[in-house]
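Long-time lurker. I teach an intro course on protein structure, and each term I like to show students one example going from raw sequence to a predicted 3D structure in token notation. This year I'd like something fresh instead of my usual example. Would anyone be willing to generate the tokens for the chain below so I can use it in lecture? Attribution to the forum is fine with me.
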Amino acid sequence: MRYAAFVLTKEPTKTRVGIVSADGKTVQELDLGVDVSEDGIVAILKSDLAGKLPKPISTHAFSDVRLLAPVPRPRRNIFCVGKNYHEHAKEFSNSGFDGSAKPGEDIPSHAIFFTKPPESVTGPNTNVIIPTAVSTCIDYEAELTIVIGKGGKGITEADAMKHVWGYTAINDVTARDWQQRHKQWFLGKSFDTFCPMGPWVVTADEVDAENIPVKCWVNGELRQNSNTKDLIFDIPNMIATVSAGITLYPGDLIATGTPVGVGIGFKPPKYLVNGDVVVVEMGGIGKLENTFIAE
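-- Reply from a regular --
Happy to contribute to a lecture. Here you go:
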């Protein structure tokens, strides 16, 4: 099932959620009876966990809707894993921007976590702001993102996949100079609009998470072209690592890392500039497109 958060173009102040049709031409709105302006699809997730999926109330043509981030405002920061693809870990270590590893330690021995705040989230087909007064070293990172269903603490790797409700995509936009300067990555990855998310959530039963093509285009040029087969730390490991000391809740998000092909991997780096269009695609999930605008 594909669940989306959206507004009607004729009524843009009300956030709705629904099921995207198999052909992608319509979305079936579900009657949740609550304000979902912040929760988005998490409202469906909670109903699903309670065994009370809401009933459909109307069907809208896609031409009449505007998609939002599936979770317009997460309840807390998004958990993110850095350097989690073998080839990207080498790429990043050789870029001169990696302050997290000593020479010869390209591949991390344990998953590296950081977070992005709720305020960084934006949806499909929105503008991502390049804050030129602050940074012009802006980079893209296509990432498969886990949507946690049943929460818990101390989740074992053996049980971890039982806690995955679905998957979406994010672009982990990064100000590389801030990432390098401040060592810990939070600031450089957390500017407003630096977390495009979408286009919707696909439930876990429809996705083989161990074999998802991950791609990213910049202005039609294919920059990233990999597969989750190249992950260093798999999804069960990530969930077990986070939940060892932190309770996970329904709707929590874990971005799983980006593959080789980011802008700083080029010589010289290929940073994003005004008007650039970035498309992130997760095989079996969908495409997330955003335009980068200098301000």
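Some talking points for your students: The chain has a mean pLDDT of 94. The chain is about 10% helix and 35% strand.
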